[in-house]
Amino acid sequence: MPHPASPVSASPLDRARRLAFFRLIPVLFVAYALAYIDRTNVALAKLTMGRDLPGFDAAVFGFGAGIFFFGYFLLEVPGSVIVERWSARKWICRIMVTWGVVAALTAFVRTPTQFYWMRFLLGLAEAGFFPGVIVYLTHWFVERDRAKALAWFLVATPVAQMIAPAVSAPILRLGETELIDGVAVTHAAFGSLSGWQWMFIFWGVPAVIVGVLVLVLLPDKPRDAQWLAPDERDALESTLAAEKAAKAGKAKMRLMDGLTHPRVLLLCAVFFLCVTANYGIEFFLPSILQDWYGLSIGSIAWLAALPSVLVMVSQLVMGWSSDRFQERRWHVLGPWLATATALALVPLTKGHLGLTIACFMVAAAGLKAYLPAFFALPGLFLVGTAAAGSVGLINSIGNLGGFLGPVILGRMKEMTGSYGLGLWILSGSVTLAAVSLALVKREAFVARTRTSREDRGS
Predict the structure, then answer these.
(1) CB 51: neighbour CB atoms within 10 A?
(2) SS3 track for the chain
(3) Dist CA 69 CA 342 (whole Å)
(4) Per-residue confidence of the chain (458 residues) as pLDDT tens digits?
(5) By CB neighbour count within 10 A (0-12 exposed, 13-18 middle, 19+ buried), where does 105 fall?
(6) 110 vs 275: CA distance, rounded Å
(7) Whole-angstrom distance, CA of residue 433 vs CA of residue 333
(8) Which of 44, 275, 17 is closest to 163 using CA atoms?
(9) What pTM was estimated for this model as a whole?
(10) For residue 99, which of 73, 71, 61 has the smallest C-alpha distance?
(11) Distance of alpha carbon 380 from its chain centroid, rounded?
């Protein structure tokens, strides 16, 4: 992350840009890491949860994991508009406190129906967080910094995927008996709750705490930041206003302009296809490793975290590259093609653990590396409430793929006894997304970046 220190000779704008990175991104980073852990830790909970709760098979977990996104869908667009028109810090605080409470209460479900309801409510609670942050970044970061800022925010997901298994595995093993080197080992219990229950509680509480801190640490606009000098506030505000005016031109963009724009609808569709593959993998990777290789909880936890290493590197590199070359479209297509290829090869690697992990690493990296460039695309042709609404619409419709992906893998596993067909379907989903975006003329997504580059004298 850029260092907060600025040379004395730096302009007020450059000083403000550096301070914005240092002051805002760490808070958003931690918040998103917690959101991602609370959203996806059911993948690890599944390893032991099914033993305590009769009837919790792969199909039940797939449906429960995915129904989160129906709740998520309902408040995405309103949430992003609230951030644009009201207050980002108040809205993000509300989101984090409610999702933390619901995440912790998931520990007490006993039936599939209760599980479905808690997952739905968790999605409803978290709705608006991601698009709200995307919109919030446009209030603080000039156009040439946005993909880089978004990359630092998004890298919270691979970091979360590395940290969560390492921290969750010991909690998950509480009271469990497992074979380690052929010897049955029973781990100590803690109270009357199972390990998977303590895991849900453990990760729900920090979300509430950080949600309260957001009220103090996240100013809504540069003019609200006490840590910016007056000349820094003025320089950043004026630059952001000039960029907004240049995009809007003489026409005032309305919310419906963003919700009905043909390019926005295309981005909704391709994002849906990629999210389908992403969450199919994330919710079932531990189960695939357990099914194919019979590994212990500890081994699965650290192997499932390995793809996140490549994800973290690829996101930062692609975010930097996209801003450096002011190109978005191929920074999206390239990762998608890599993912489609890797997923198609995964079923062929069964029996070869190293190859299986390698393919999942490439697939996971491709399904995250494109995001900084992808979410910079709407800002190339929309502005203000129209841009905010478009991000909410893209994220809400696209994330419904988070329901479809786990359902596909869960159902295919129950129907065929194998994960292979489900993985090939996910590969086809990403391939279709890449082909669809590739068919759009290049000029549709470069006009604004060219203007921005010329304005800077590049």
Answers:
(1) 11
(2) CCCCCCCCCCCHHHHHHHHHHHHHHHHHHHHHHHHHHHHHCHHHHHHHHHHHCCCCCHHHHHHHHHHHHHHHHHCHHHHHHHHHHCCHHHHHHHHHHHHHHHHHHHHHCCCHHHHHHHHHHHHHHHCCHHHHHHHHHHCCCCHHHHHHHHHHHHCHHHHHHHHHHHHHHHHHCCCCEEEECCEEEECCCECCECHHHHHHHHHHHHHHHHHHHHHHHCCCCHHHCCCCCHHHHHHHHHHHHHHHHHHHCCCCCCHHHHHHCHHHHHHHHHHHHHHHHHHHHHHHHHHHHHHHHCCCHHHHHHHHHHHHHHHHHHHHHHHHHHHHHCCCHHHHHHHHHHHHHHHHHHHHHCCCHHHHHHHHHHHHHHHHHCHHHHCCCHHHCCCHHHHHHHHHHHHHHHCCHHHHHHHHHHHHHHHHCCCHHHHHHHHHHHHHHHHHHHCCCHHHHCHHHHHHHHHCCC
(3) 25
(4) 544 555 556 788 889 989 989 999 999 999 999 998 988 888 888 888 878 888 888 788 888 888 888 877 777 667 667 767 777 888 889 899 999 999 999 999 999 999 999 999 998 888 888 878 888 888 888 888 887 888 788 888 888 888 888 888 888 877 666 656 655 656 566 767 888 899 999 999 999 999 999 988 989 889 888 999 999 999 999 998 888 777 655 456 676 777 788 888 999 999 999 999 998 998 889 889 989 998 887 788 888 888 888 888 888 888 788 878 878 888 999 999 999 999 999 999 999 999 999 999 999 999 988 988 888 888 777 766 777 678 778 887 888 888 888 889 988 988 998 999 999 999 999 999 999 999 887 666 654 433 333 333 33
(5) middle
(6) 29
(7) 9
(8) 44
(9) 0.71
(10) 71
(11) 21
Structure tokens at 4: 């907060």
